[in-house]
Each structure stands twice: as C-alpha cells, then as structure tokens.
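A.,

Following up on our hallway conversation. Structure tokens first:
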C-alpha cells in the first residue's frame, strides 16, 4: 500500500508537470503565431488522398553525403509531384519534377543553366515566381540544377553529371556566402563528390535505367516511413511533443557568445583553396565548351546584412572576407559577377528589407517575389552586358 501511494503521488506530479509544460508549449507557439500550425506531413498525407496521387517530399543530396553508398543521388524523385516547402502563410508549395528530378518545365528549349542551392530551386515561392519563371519575363529560357542544401562541390558534381543534357550558351552560378563554406566543409569528405573534382571523366551515370532504379531505392530507403508518421504529425501539430519547450530549455543552457570553434569552417584556409579550385573547374569547363560563365552572390540574411550582436558582427566580417576573396579571384579570371549584398545595402535598410526577404516562423527565410524579381533583373543585365 505504501509503495502504491508513492507511485500514485509520482504519477500525479508527472501529469501535473506535463500539464503545465503543455500550457507553456501552447503559450510559446501562440506567441510565435504557430498555434496548431499544419506541417509538411499533414499536407502530404491530406493532398495525396484528395488528389489520389503519390506526392513526395523534397530531397537534398546533403542528407546522404555522410552515409556512403554505391551511388549518391544528386536530386529527388523524377517525373513526380514534389512538396517543396511551406510558405510564409503556411501553405504548401509544390512542383512537378523533370526527368532528372529538378524543378523545371521541360516544354521549353533552354540554353541558360542556373546552378545553386534552395534559392535556385525556388524556396519558397509559387512556381510562377521562381527564377526560371522570372527569366521568362525577359524572353530568356532557363533550366535549373538548384537543390536545397547544395554547397559548391555538390553544385559542381551536379553540373558535371547533367551538363550534356543541355545545349548551353551561358551558365549562372549562384553563391550563397553565409552557408556555402559550411556546406563545403561537409561535402569535401565524400568520396563520390571528390571523384567529380579529381577525375575529369568521372560520372555516376545517374540517367541510366539501372541507376535510376537504384536512385529510387535509395530515396525510398531514406524517407522510409517518414511520410506516413501520422501520429508523429498529430503530436507535432497539436504540440503534445513539447518541442518549443525543449528548444527553450536548450537555448537556456547554450553559451551566449559563440566560441571560435563555431566559425572554424570560415577560418579554414584549406576550404578557401578548395572553393577556389571548384570555381576554376567551372571556369575551365565553360571555356572548353565556349560557354559564358557568370557568378551571382546571393545576399546573406538580414540579421547578418545588418548585424547588431557581437556574434552577428563577427560572422558578418568573416563572410565579407570570403566574398572579397572570391571576387578578387573572379576578377583575375575575367569572370563577370553581381553582388546582391551591395545592392541591398545601397537601396534598402532594416526597416524595408522585408520587401526582399520573407520572415517565416520569426526567422529570415528566402526571397520574396519582389526579391527574386530584382535579382533576376540584375542577373539579366549582367548577362546582356
């Protein structure tokens, strides 16, 4: 009886604790305008049933670069409906992938290739406002090899793998300076990616029937039952998993100021050299095939563009040093470039930068429709000049 009462008291107190934590969870989500906000899995399952067709989650190759394997998929599911992201209104954004798994309309004849990460893939705008569609307004047809999470080495590998699918006149490489060096620090250890850099003739031949099937097996294995976790999604939507409370507790125990270790990838000269080497490979490949090559520097996020805290100012300086390094090398190689950072610093400020960048869940995200439109206009001017 004594143990029974003891267990009952513990149980009662645990329930009471969970109740108060759940109230705190609801308060945190309400305060962040995320109360009972639907997730990607919610829309994936709901719309798959409504439309009676299989819908897939977007895939980034960076998710597999540490896992090894016989091949490394460089894009997601092919000829499929893909749930790309949720926009600032928490509405799903879909695209129909092309024969190689990229966000392209295959009906147009294209000779300009856009290479980059999530900005080039179209995060997180309706397809009629992504870069491919923006270029059409200037009577230019483009194809995109953009994939969210790609860094310089993945971008080069993707270009080498699929370059013969296009009759190219121009290539535009989009560099995202606030995360490309971090991405490269992870990519440089992958054996398959290194082969693309070290062997001029290396390809995985991902377009062959055998490797297409193998790619699907790998993607299916990666996603597994992720897309069918209805209970997990239910707990997430209704906050029973106390995720925000967990994040709050984690933040309380984090150091206020980041140590130098947090910035090692921005202070690593070997990564700098590797970045330059990849750029030189792009330059060599394009010159060899008589293709024009341009570089666009995506803007860093507004909190870095207009830094306030010590960490933001430190990060801003480190990233700016990298931009200066790359620009200097591009000038030596006679490569034309445009820096969106400089344009925004000249024409915008903290008060109106939300015209260019979206703010989703209280953090800066990708460009707005206007941001993509202006960037396209400046890129077209660079190409035409």
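Then the amino acids I'd put at each of the 385 positions:
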């Amino acid at each position: 009886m004594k143990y029974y009462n003891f267990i009952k008291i513990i149980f009662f107190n645990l329930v009471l604790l969970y109740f108060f934590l759940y109230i705190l969870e609801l308060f945190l989500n309400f305060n962040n305008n995320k109360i009972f906000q639907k997730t990607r899995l919610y829309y994936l399952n709901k719309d798959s049933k409504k439309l009676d067709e299989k819908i897939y989650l977007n895939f980034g190759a960076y998710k597999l670069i540490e896992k090894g394997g016989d091949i490394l998929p460089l894009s997601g599911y092919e000829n499929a409906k893909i749930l790309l992201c949720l926009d600032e209104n928490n509405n799903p954004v879909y695209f129909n992938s092309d024969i190689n798994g990229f966000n392209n309309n295959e009906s147009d004849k294209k000779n300009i290739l856009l290479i980059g990460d999530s900005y080039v893939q179209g995060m997180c705008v309706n397809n009629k406002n992504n870069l491919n569609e923006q270029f059409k307004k200037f009577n230019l047809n483009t194809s995109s090899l953009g994939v969210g999470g790609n860094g310089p080495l993945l971008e080069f590998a993707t270009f080498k793998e699929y370059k013969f699918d296009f009759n190219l006149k121009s290539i535009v490489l989009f560099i995202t300076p606030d995360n490309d060096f971090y991405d490269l620090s992870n990519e440089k250890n992958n054996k398959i990616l290194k082969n693309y850099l070290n062997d001029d003739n290396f390809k995985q031949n991902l377009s062959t029937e055998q490797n297409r099937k193998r790619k699907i097996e790998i993607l299916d294995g990666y996603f597994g039952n992720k897309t069918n976790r209805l209970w997990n999604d239910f707990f997430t939507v209704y906050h029973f998993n106390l995720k925000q409370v967990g994040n709050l507790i984690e933040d309380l125990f984090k150091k206020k100021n980041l140590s130098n270790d947090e910035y090692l990838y921005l202070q690593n000269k070997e990564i700098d050299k590797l970045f330059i080497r990849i750029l030189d490979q792009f330059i060599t490949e394009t010159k060899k095939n008589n293709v024009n090559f341009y570089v666009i520097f995506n803007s860093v996020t507004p909190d870095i563009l207009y830094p306030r805290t010590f960490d933001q100012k430190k990060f801003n300086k480190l990233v700016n040093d990298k931009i200066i390094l790359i620009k200097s090398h591009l000038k030596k190689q006679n490569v034309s470039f445009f820096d969106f950072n400089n344009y925004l610093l000249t024409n915008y400020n903290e008060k109106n930068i939300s015209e260019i960048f979206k703010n989703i869940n209280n953090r800066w995200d990708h460009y707005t429709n206007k941001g993509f439109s202006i960037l396209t206009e400046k890129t077209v001017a660079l190409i035409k000049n």
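The chain has one domain: 40-243+258-384. Curious whether your intuition agrees with the design.

B.
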